Structures are given as structure tokens and as C-alpha cells.
């Protein structure tokens, strides 16, 4: 009897313990680390003495202070150790403990309390370990240690194969632990983490279905993978709560009860219709919190909060739709490191928002991260600011085979699982270069397995004729399609430093001057700001001209390379890349404002803008061209109120005013419509001599945190007596810092790029410097001094950051607000139809007649060509009905090199005669409008060959992106070769 009573008491005791609600915790694990460069014997052991090691707060790459001081190839590599001592909270016993790393570079072995837990090698993705059996309960101390190797030539241990993306061109090597780390404590019945490598788990998956944009509703689906590590089966209730951006509960629903056996893993599902939805959109980072809850006997045993957004996508007819509205892609191909001077990529979350929101404010809508998967902080930042993303796996510049390909597949699998709840990810990129159809199918199968309902297209660069890829597009060139969207994955490689306005402004840099690039002149990589911005306008117009609304076959946009100056492969005079539309401290160049003007709309221009390039501070006798970027069809320029006439318009948006004489005062540009109504305007004034130093503090909204990792930006500006920036000032500023912070400084042209220096010049009247907090709060004072000017001071207090025993409940970025400035997706069309395509019924030719269809088959990897004789250089198209064709749009083979002397006939009447022009894709030929059923293209002379874009240099000089060029074609003078041809008539 006593034994029976004792057994019942034990059963009741165990039941009562389990029925108590358990609060799952995710801790910030970034504090209280130490690091030591070089290898250290037995550094993983408990008794190892690390008193002399450097104290740091993560994220922190051990060589991050070299960012922008050293060329990417010279960044320090080798072995580094990280160690941390910590204690679990009181009362944590017999629970599950997981360690999550957002990523390390390149490869590391992880130890807990002297025991090897495992290793991670790909240098990119997040990973995690179950450390439950190795952790000591409170008040005992635990030690985590990592031995990390960031060698450029590191090879995977199991295969002996290096990682394709561990590359000295594009993947800046900030070694160690440059990303965040978290500690998770859960019940033994828990929802898994989305960390497939090592843990082999997939976590929570939230997605909408049956989306109705007009009705503002969708069915919200919540799936979660659960695991039972109790010794007995459990019957689980599954509840879902959805909270809006303000934290208000807007939905509550449940799935079916489920019994899960010991050590079993199961997938739970629940869904419900949700009305009055705010759909995530461009510049409208509306996010919901979805809480997935496990209950046993009515008590909560696990709860996971997932921040996500809901949106609708479609990819067809050569176009991309977001929330039922066509969006032409306009944005940047940005290096995934997204780095800053002297700190590399390891910036606090608010700085990711600061940088990514600048793209949105400049009317960019998509960032294509280059070559490798971005870290979670940047992905979540894009969610908040409303910036679409293309997410790669890992690649260099080509397809891969064998173990190298398996490495990429595994990385893409992990990246999809880890990031599939982030609404800003729209494209999965399988390669930075075309891949085989078999490989594309394999990548597509990954997407179908792990993210079948996420509304994301998977593809790769190029893949123009692929039946597997769901999007594509070349680099530098203009592609069109009536099927999947084709957008340029990078264009406009030119470089230019922010310091160089033009040849008339200090330091009077002559356009194009600078060192050779690979032994050849590099004028396109040593631009002044005005020429760099002009090139951006010219290059964008190629895509804008073929935008949705211009026909059946359209271009879906493109991304300019790059957004911010980068510590990666470069061609100009600096040891870092200066292609950015903002500099490394995110100060805009003229190219940024040019894009802001051109890109203000989903497809067509929706808001008119005008921007005058440069400044208005010159000296007497300066006569120069003034360039204006405007969306208006006419722009008039005024100097001190006197008209200088209307500008010469080119590339749609560029207006040139030649030989304008400078006079102190005001220059003003006014854009008009055809009827003379003012659409927009801009003006610049002549600033006086520097009168004072202006300091501006930029921090996260709650102020600078004293956590040893937070940063503050201090903008320094030289202004005249009226408060105007002095735009030609390059004066030296001397700074001093007092208080609990370390100096990171900024960047400028000069010795070692002034990295970490407390003496740094402004450039064009402005610069920025950065400081990093220490792990104690206090008053910080920054003072700035310039020759002949009064010293200026800026003081502020840092905020205490609460940590206990190496743990904090304050998660990075958790309190940052969403950007909602653009508002929800408009429900009106994003473009007006510009012209009507005329369908081609068939085509005939005296040469290669069986291939004539290839010239209008909507496949840019096929062509029709004659036999090389001028006499056979003709092709006749029969239209589907007699039409008044006024334009022919043609992509000729050898588009950037060949000139074809042709004439075009409409039912035998000559409607065009002349030479074709070189292009980066398509040319538009205006035709005399004649009602006709047959259009004939005739070659009337010998071809000539000269590269019209010789300064546009390929990454691989042996690669030929004009896929039809061959050795014989250069000398063949009687060829007519057409890749694609389209005919259009005006809208009546």
C-alpha cells in the first residue's frame, strides 16, 4: 500500500512539474567574449588562462579594423580563438539548450566546457548545436570556445575541396565571429530551430494563401516542426496568435490535437482567414508577429514568435507583380558584406536599417546581394525598411561540379530554411553565372521542398532560354522576354570618388585621370562625380526604354553595381571599389540623386523630380556645362533669375546646358510639361567661406547603448555664416574623444584612407566619423577643430545595456520600427500602354529559311543568319494582319560591335534606310508609317565591326556575352544576323 501511494505521489509530482507553464527564452549571447589572434594550445580547456586576451562584444571580426585600410587581398588571415564564460539562469535544469551562430568566417571548431561539439566550415550561413548534455546548471560556470581559421585557401575537411565563394574579389574576409550569437532554452517538447546543418531541423514556416489584394484578406498558414525528447508520449494542442505592428491581437486559431511519441519529430499545421490585412510592400515594411504555441494539459510548454509579413507575387509575361501591381526592378547589386570603414560588416542593426533605408529613399526597390547569402541582420532590416531582396546561395563566377556543387546546394538549402519567413526575399539566386538545367532543376527542387508557398522565383544569372529557371538576365546587357522576367543582375560598373566634383572644383581632378587597370587606361574607373552620374543615367535609360508597357516582350529592370563603396575588387585609383552611389560612410554622391529622380515610380514615373548635378561655388571666368536630371520633358535653367534657355535632352532624363558662365548667386532648374506647366524644380546657391563646424549625432532611436558593440555616427560639416554647406571645402578636421567609447573614425582620400585617424578632412564640405561604445555607460564628448575656426563640441549620454552572467534578453534589432513611408501598394496600374505589338505570322528568306522563326521566337539564345553573302541578306516577315508599323525593335547579333547597313520595306515601299547603331542589346528604328502586311529587312552593304562599348570591361576578358560572335564573323562582311525582332504600331 505504501509503495502504491509513493508511486502515485511521484506521478502527481511529475505531472504538476510538467503542467507548470515553461517560458522559452532566446538570449542575446554577444557580451563578455575574449579573443586572441594566433593559435593557442589547449585554449578550449576549462583551466586555460585567458586573462591577457582582448575583451570584446560580438559581432566582432578580429581583423575588422582593417576594413578599407587594406585591399581585400591583404586582409589578415589565419587562426583566431574566441572564448566566453557564462552561467545559465537559476532554475534551468533538465531543459534543452541550443547555441545559434548567425555565421562565422571561414571555418571553426566549437567547444563547450572543453568538449568538442562540432564544426562549421562554409563561412556564410547560420548554424547551431544542441549543447544540452554539456551545460552545467547555475551557479556553475560554462565556457564556450571557438578556434576559427579564415584562410583564403581553406578547404573543407571531409573533401579537401575549397569553397568557391571564399574569394579575394568580392567576399571581404572579416574573420572570426562577425555576426550575432544566441542561446535558446526550451522545454524537452519544443519547436525546432530553422538550422538544418548539424541539427537537421526546419523550425516554423508561415505563409499566406488565397490572397485577395482587393478584399485585403488571405488565409494565414502556420506550420511548425516539433520534437518530443521526454521519455513518454505527449498529447499536444497547437495554437496560433497573430499580432499586428502595434502588438494588438488580430487573430487566434488552433490546429488539431496531436500525440507525439518519445524522440519523435512531427509537423503541426493550422490556418485561418485573416481580414483587414496590411500587405508588405516596397517602402512599406508592415510586419506581423505570429506566435506558435504548444500546450499540454492546457498549459503552455513552448511558444515561438516569428516576425513576418504577407505579400502576393507573380512572375510571368516578362514582368514581376507585387500585390497585383507590376514593379520594374530598380536597385543595386550590393556586396553581401555591406561593410563600413574600421568595423567591416559587424555593425549594429540600426546601421543596417540606416544603409538599407537609404536605398528605398533613393527610390530603389531591390537589393541583389552578391555571390553569398546575406546575414540575418540585413535580411531582417530589409523586411523593416520595405526593400525587396534577391538572395544568393554561394558562387564565384561559374557553375560548379562534384563536391563544389554539393557545397552550394547545401548552402542554399540552409539559407532557404533559415530565411523563408522573411517577406522581403523575392528571388532565390542559384548562381552568379548560368548553371546547367540539371543543376537548376536541383535548386528548384530545394525550393519546392522547403519553401513551396513563399511566392519566390528561383533562377540564376543569364538562363535566358532555361525551362527550369523562373527568372534570368545577363550582366551589363538588356534582355527582353514575353515569358519569365529578365532583369540585369548588375550593370554600370563605372567608379568615381565622392571627393571629385568636376575638373573645375578642388582638387581639380581631370576626368578619367588615374592609374591603369590591368595595363590599360581606366578612365571609366576614375570618374568625376558628374561623369559617373551621367553614365548612370545613360545606362538606366536602356532598361527604362524597354520597360513594361512598351510591348509584349519587355525588360523587367536591373540593379546597378554597387550601392556603397566597398572593400572589394576595384579598378580605380583607390584600394577599394568606388562604384557606390554613396560612399563608404553612406554620404550620397550625385549618382544617388540621379537615381532618385529616375526611379520614382513602380514602372512609369509617378512623381516628378529635378536635380542639378554638382554645386554652384566656382571662380570668375569659369565656363562649364551644367547637367540636370529631370523627369520633365523640358528643363529651363536660370542664373540669378536670368534664363539660360532649355537644355538638350538625351537618354530621356539628362539635360545638358552647354557653356554656362558662373556668377555668384543662385542657379535654378525648372522642369515643365509640354504645355508649360511646372512639374518640378531644383536650385543651388553659392555658399560663403567656412564660418563654423557643425556636428550632427546619428544613433539608434533609443540612443547609444553601452554594450561594447553599439555605434554612433557623427556627421561633420563646414558651413558658412548662413548655415549653408561649403561644397568645395576639403579642410582637415581634428577630433578628440572623451568618455566610455572607442574611436573608429571615417574615410577620406589620403594616407591609409585615414582609417582610425582622429584627423580627417571633410570632402566637399562634409564627412562622417564613427565611435563604438564600451561596456559601461557614461557621458561622451566629441570635439572638432579646423584651422581658423572655433572648436565645436557634441556631448551625449550612453544608455546602460543590461546583461547578467553573459546573457541578455535584449535582442539585436528587436525594437527597431518599420518604415511605412511609401504607404501600401497602390491599387492603380503602374504603367500606361505605350504602343501596340504587331504579331508576326511567319518569315521567309533566300538563306537558311528553316531558321527564320528563330529571329522572333522570344529566345535570345537563338538567331537567324544568312549565309554571309550580301545578295542573300534579306528576310521578309508576314504580319498577322495589315498594320501601320511605325517602329521596329531589333536585337542584332554582335549588338555592341557590328554595324549593319540596311533598308526596311513595307509591302515593297522603303520606310527606312541607314546604318544600325551599336547598343547593349536592342535598338529602336523609327519607320515611315505605311499600312502593310509584309516587312522586309535587307542588307544593302558590307558590315563593319568596331566595339562601341570597349570601355565596358567584362570580369572575365575571355568570356563573350554576345553569344553568337565567332572568329569568322569579324571578317564576314555580308552577314545579316537577327536575334529578335519586334514590330509596333502607335496606340490610336
UniProtKB/TrEMBL annotation:
One of its GO terms (molecular function) is hydrolase activity, hydrolyzing O-glycosyl compounds. Residues 695-794 form the Glycoside hydrolase family domain. Transmembrane segments: none annotated. Residues 205-311 form the Glycoside hydrolase family 2 immunoglobulin-like beta-sandwich domain. It comes from the Bacteria. GO terms for biological process: carbohydrate metabolic process. Residues 623-677 form the DUF4982 domain. Residues 72-167 form the Beta-mannosidase-like galactose-binding domain. SUPFAM superfamilies: (Trans)glycosidases (SSF51445), beta-Galactosidase/glucuronidase domain (SSF49303), Galactose-binding domain-like (SSF49785). Keywords: Glycosidase, Hydrolase. Gene3D superfamilies: Galactose-binding domain-like, Glycosidases, Immunoglobulins. InterPro entries: Beta-gal/glucu_dom_sf, Beta-mannosidase-like_N2, DUF4982, Galactose-bd-like_sf, GH, GH2_Domain-Containing, Glyco_hydro2_dom5, Ig-like_fold. It holds the Pfam family DUF4982. Belongs to the glycosyl hydrolase 2 family. This is DUF4982 domain-containing protein. It comes from Flavobacterium resistens.
Amino acid at each position: 500500500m505504501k509503495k502504491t501511494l509513493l508511486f502515485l505521489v511521484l506521478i502527481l509530482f511529475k505531472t504538476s512539474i510538467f503542467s507548470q507553464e515553461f517560458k522559452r527564452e532566446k538570449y542575446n549571447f554577444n557580451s563578455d567574449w575574449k579573443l586572441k589572434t594566433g593559435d593557442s594550445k589547449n585554449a578550449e580547456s576549462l583551466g586555460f588562462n585567458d586573462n591577457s586576451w582582448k575583451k570584446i562584444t560580438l559581432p566582432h571580426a578580429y581583423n575588422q579594423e582593417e576594413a578599407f585600410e587594406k585591399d581585400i587581398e591583404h586582409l589578415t588571415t589565419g587562426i583566431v580563438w574566441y572564448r566566453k564564460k557564462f552561467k545559465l539562469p537559476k532554475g534551468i535544469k533538465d531543459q534543452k539548450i541550443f547555441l545559434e551562430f548567425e555565421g562565422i568566417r571561414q571555418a571553426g571548431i566549437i567547444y563547450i566546457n572543453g568538449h568538442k561539439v562540432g564544426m562549421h566550415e562554409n563561412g556564410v550561413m547560420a548554424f547551431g548545436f544542441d549543447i544540452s548534455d554539456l551545460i552545467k546548471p547555475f551557479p556553475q560556470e560554462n565556457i564556450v570556445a571557438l578556434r576559427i581559421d579564415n584562410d583564403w585557401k581553406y578547404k573543407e575537411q571531409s573533401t579537401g575541396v575549397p569553397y568557391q565563394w571564399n574569394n579575394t574579389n568580392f567576399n571581404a574576409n572579416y574573420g572570426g565571429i562577425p555576426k550575432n550569437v544566441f542561446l535558446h532554452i526550451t522545454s524537452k517538447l519544443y519547436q525546432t530551430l530553422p538550422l538544418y546543418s548539424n541539427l537537421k531541423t526546419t523550425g516554423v514556416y508561415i505563409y499566406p494563401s488565397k490572397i485577395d489584394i482587393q478584399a485585403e484578406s488571405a488565409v494565414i498558414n502556420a506550420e511548425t516542426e516539433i520534437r518530443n525528447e521526454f521519455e513518454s508520449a505527449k498529447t499536444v494542442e497547437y495554437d496560433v496568435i497573430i499580432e499586428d505592428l502595434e502588438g494588438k491581437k488580430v487573430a487566434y486559431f488552433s490546429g488539431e490535437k496531436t500525440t507525439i511519441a518519445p524522440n519523435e519529430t512531427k509537423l503541426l499545421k493550422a490556418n485561418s482567414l485573416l481580414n483587414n490585412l496590411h500587405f508588405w510592400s516596397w517602402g512599406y515594411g508592415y510586419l506581423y508577429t505570429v506566435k506558435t504555441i504548444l500546450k499540454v494539459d492546457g498549459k503552455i510548454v513552448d511558444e515561438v514568435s516569428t516576425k513576418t509579413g504577407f505579400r502576393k507575387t507573380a512572375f510571368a509575361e516578362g514582368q514581376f507583380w507585387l500585390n497585383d501591381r507590376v514593379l520594374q526592378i530598380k536597385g543595386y547589386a550590393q556586396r553581401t558584406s555591406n561593410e563600413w570603414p574600421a568595423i567591416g560588416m559587424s555593425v549594429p542593426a540600426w546601421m543596417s536599417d540606416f544603409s538599407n533605408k537609404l536605398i528605398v529613399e533613393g527610390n530603389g526597390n531591390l537589393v541583389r546581394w552578391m555571390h553569398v547569402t546575406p546575414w540575418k541582420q540585413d535580411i531582417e532590416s530589409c523586411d523593416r525598411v520595405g526593400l525587396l531582396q534577391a538572395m544568393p546561395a554561394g558562387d564565384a563566377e561559374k557553375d560548379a561540379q562534384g563536391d563544389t556543387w554539393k557545397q552550394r546546394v547545401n548552402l542554399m538549402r540552409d539559407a532557404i530554411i533559415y530565411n523563408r519567413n522573411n517577406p522581403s526575399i523575392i528571388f532565390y539566386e542559384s548562381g552568379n553565372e548560368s548553371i546547367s538545367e540539371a543543376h537548376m532543376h536541383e535548386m528548384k527542387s530545394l525550393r519546392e521542398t522547403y519553401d513551396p508557398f513563399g511566392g519566390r522565383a528561383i533562377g540564376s544569372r543569364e538562363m535566358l532560354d532555361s525551362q527550369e529557371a523562373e527568372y534570368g538576365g545577363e550582366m551589363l546587357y538588356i534582355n527582353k522576354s514575353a515569358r519569365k522576367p529578365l532583369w540585369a543582375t548588375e550593370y554600370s560598373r563605372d567608379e568615381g570618388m565622392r571627393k571629385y566634383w568636376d575638373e573645375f572644383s578642388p582638387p581639380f581632378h581631370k576626368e578619367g585621370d588615374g592609374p591603369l587597370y590591368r595595363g590599360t587606361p581606366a578612365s571609366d574607373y576614375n570618374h568625376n562625380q558628374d561623369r559617373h552620374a551621367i553614365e548612370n543615367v545613360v545606362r538606366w535609360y536602356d532598361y527604362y526604354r524597354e520597360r513594361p508597357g512598351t510591348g509584349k516582350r519587355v525588360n523587367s529592370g536591373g540593379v546597378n553595381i554597387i550601392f556603397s563603396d566597398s572593400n572589394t575588387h576595384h579598378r580605380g585609383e583607390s584600394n577599394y571599389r568606388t562604384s557606390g552611389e554613396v560612399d563608404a560612410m553612406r554620404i550620397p554622391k550625385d549618382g544617388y540623386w540621379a537615381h532618385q529622380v529616375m526611379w520614382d515610380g513602380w514602372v512609369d514615373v509617378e512623381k516628378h523630380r529635378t536635380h542639378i548635378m554638382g554645386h554652384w561655388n566656382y571662380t570668375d571666368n569659369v565656363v562649364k556645362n551644367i547637367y540636370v536630371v529631370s523627369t520633365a520633358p523640358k528643363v529651363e535653367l536660370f542664373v540669378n533669375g536670368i534664363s539660360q534657355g532649355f537644355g538638350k535632352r538625351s537618354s530621356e532624363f539628362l539635360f545638358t546646358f552647354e557653356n554656362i558662365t558662373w556668377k555668384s548667386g543662385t542657379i535654378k532648374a525648372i522642369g515643365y510639361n509640354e504645355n508649360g506647366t511646372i512639374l518640378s524644380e531644383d536650385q543651388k546657391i553659392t555658399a560663403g567661406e567656412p564660418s563654423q563646424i557643425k556636428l550632427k549625432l546619428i544613433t539608434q532611436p533609443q540612443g547609444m547603448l553601452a554594450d561594447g558593440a553599439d555605434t554612433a555616427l557623427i556627421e561633420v560639416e563646414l558651413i558658412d555664416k548662413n548655415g549653408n554647406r561649403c561644397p568645395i571645402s576639403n579642410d582637415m578636421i581634428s577630433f578628440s574623444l572623451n568618455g566610455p567609447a572607442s574611436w573608429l573614425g571615417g574615410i577620406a582620400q589620403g594616407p591609409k584612407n585615414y582609417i582610425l585617424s582622429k584627423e580627417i578632412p571633410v570632402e566637399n564640405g562634409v564627412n562622417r566619423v564613427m565611435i563604438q561604445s564600451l561596456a559601461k555607460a557614461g557621458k561622451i564628448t566629441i570635439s572638432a577643430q579646423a584651422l581658423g575656426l572655433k572648436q565645436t563640441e557634441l556631448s551625449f549620454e550612453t544608455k546602460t545595456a543590461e546583461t547578467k552572467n553573459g546573457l541578455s534578453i535584449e535582442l539585436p534589432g528587436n525594437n527597431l520600427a518599420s518604415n511605412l513611408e511609401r504607404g501600401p501598394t497602390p491599387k492603380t496600374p503602374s504603367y500606361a500602354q505605350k504602343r501596340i505589338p504587331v504579331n508576326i505570322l511567319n518569315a521567309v528568306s533566300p538563306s537558311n529559311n528553316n531558321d527564320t522563326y528563330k529571329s522572333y521566337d522570344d529566345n535570345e539564345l537563338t538567331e537567324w543568319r544568312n549565309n554571309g553573302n550580301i545578295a542573300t541578306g534579306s528576310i521578309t516577315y508576314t504580319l498577322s494582319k495589315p498594320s501601320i508599323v511605325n517602329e521596329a525593335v531589333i536585337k542584332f547579333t554582335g549588338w555592341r560591335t557590328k554595324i549593319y547597313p540596311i533598308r526596311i520595306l513595307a509591302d515593297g515601299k522603303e520606310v527606312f534606310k541607314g546604318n544600325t547603331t551599336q547598343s547593349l542589346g536592342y535598338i529602336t528604328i523609327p519607320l515611315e508609317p505605311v499600312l502593310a502586311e509584309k516587312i522586309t529587312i535587307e542588307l544593302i552593304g558590307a558590315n563593319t565591326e568596331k566595339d562601341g562599348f570597349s570601355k565596358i570591361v567584362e570580369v572575365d576578358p575571355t568570356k563573350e556575352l554576345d553569344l553568337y560572335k565567332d572568329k569568322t564573323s569579324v571578317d564576314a562582311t555580308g552577314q545579316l544576323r537577327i536575334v529578335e525582332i519586334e514590330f509596333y504600331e502607335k496606340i490610336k
